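Justification of resources, computational component.

The compute hours requested in this renewal are based largely on the per-chain cost of generating structure records like the one below. Each record pairs the submitted sequence with a full structure-token output. That output is archived, and it is also reused by downstream analysis tasks.
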Amino acid sequence: MTERAADATEPTATAQPEFEPDEEREPPRRLGGPYLRHAAAVVGVALVAACLVVLDAGALGVLGAFTAVVLVAVSVTDLERRIIPNRIVLPATAVVLVGHTLVEPSPEWLLGALGASAFLLVAALISPQGMGMGDVKLALLIGAMLGRGAAPALAIGSVLAVVPSIAILVRHGRAGRKVGFPFGPFLALGALVVLLAAPPE
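The structure output for this chain reads:
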């Protein structure tokens, strides 16, 4: 069993729609090296401070800070290895969903999680080259934290992702339609924008 299988992770969008068995594939090239993780650590600390200021230092602020750290972490793994690990995003979703429901009792957080995930699931079924199941599971976390705010978060992330999409098409032409790139960081960025600019009430 490979490390990837043992970690029970799902791949996000990749450049090739069909793969050889994991044992026969070369490991994905890491992007950014140690500098990426150093930058992510700095950004994570800044986001924690921002959440505690914007959302206050109470339970909601702590939930927001926790969500921000998880979003940064899965963005790094998506950039480095093109995966969003189940062992990170699923437990984090459970923590945020339960915590948010206890702090602000409402079905909005569960509905937001299911709705955001279902929306991306449809997109993944329509275009598996452009959307991975890891992205679908990441939407669960985003919806659990933002509720109805998950809709603008997904919209912002999708709009931001247009930039690399255009760059790939310009560089590769028609063949660029089969070239994938990590979508998780764009979802995370959209969620962080909404979290800090229009926090859940």
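The beta strands are 10-11, 83-84. Residues 1-8, 14-29 have pLDDT under 50 and may be disordered.
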